[in-house]
Structure formats: C-alpha cells, structure tokens
Design goal:
Shape: elongated
Distance between the termini: 39 Å
Structural class: alpha/beta
Strand order of the largest sheet: 2-1-3
Order of helices and strands: EHEHE
Radius of gyration: 21 Å
Strand content: 15-25%
Length: about 110
C-alpha cells in the first residue's frame, strides 16, 4: 500500500537517520595572534565557485597582511586527500602552513 493506511492517511517518516551522538569538540589548535609573516594555506575543492571565493580571500589577506605567504592546494579528485593517492603531497602541504582557509563553492 506504499505506506498508506486503509483510512487514506499516510505514514510520514523522517529522512534523518538514528546516529550515535558525537560530543561537541572545539578547535584544538591555538588561534594565531597575527597572520603577518605566516604561511596560510588556501584549500580549494573542484567546485566552480571555490576558486573565485578563495581568490577574493587571497586578495583581502594580502591587502591586510602583505607579509603573509599564501599557498594554494587543489585536490584533483573528490576524495579525502588523507586517504587518497595524494596523501604524501597533502601532508607535505599541510605541514608547511600555519593555518588553512577552505572554500567549497557550487
């Protein structure tokens, strides 16, 4: 009967799955006091608007912190880099920066 009841009513189900609750956890890395002279990673996924978003962030950061170095990283596929074939390349990049800005843009 496709979820309908004999009296013409329908059963409504929630699309949310039952999951084990994960306790909230804050950012464990300390915040940087200043971005001057720091290496900032710009992590860009392959979605169309991600690159223009990060380009705007790059322009603003360079204007505000002229001595910061901005280092782009763009994964080649939609897979977590830490488990993909580019793991070593990603780890080298992440270990070379002080902070990361990520953009995902549709």
């Amino acid at each position: 009967m496709n979820g309908s009841k004999p009296d013409g009513q329908y059963a409504v189900l929630s699309p949310w799955a039952d999951v084990d609750p994960v306790p909230l956890k804050g950012i464990s890395a300390p915040r940087l006091d200043d971005l001057s002279g720091k290496k900032i990673g710009l992590l860009c996924n392959f979605k169309p608007a991600a690159r223009p978003i990060l380009k705007a962030v790059e322009d603003k950061l360079k204007a505000r912190y002229p001595t910061c170095e901005l280092i782009w990283y763009s994964p080649t596929v939609n897979i977590a880099e830490i488990i993909g074939t580019e793991k070593a390349k990603f780890e080298e990049w992440i270990n070379a920066v002080h902070a990361v800005v990520l953009a995902v843009g549709d």
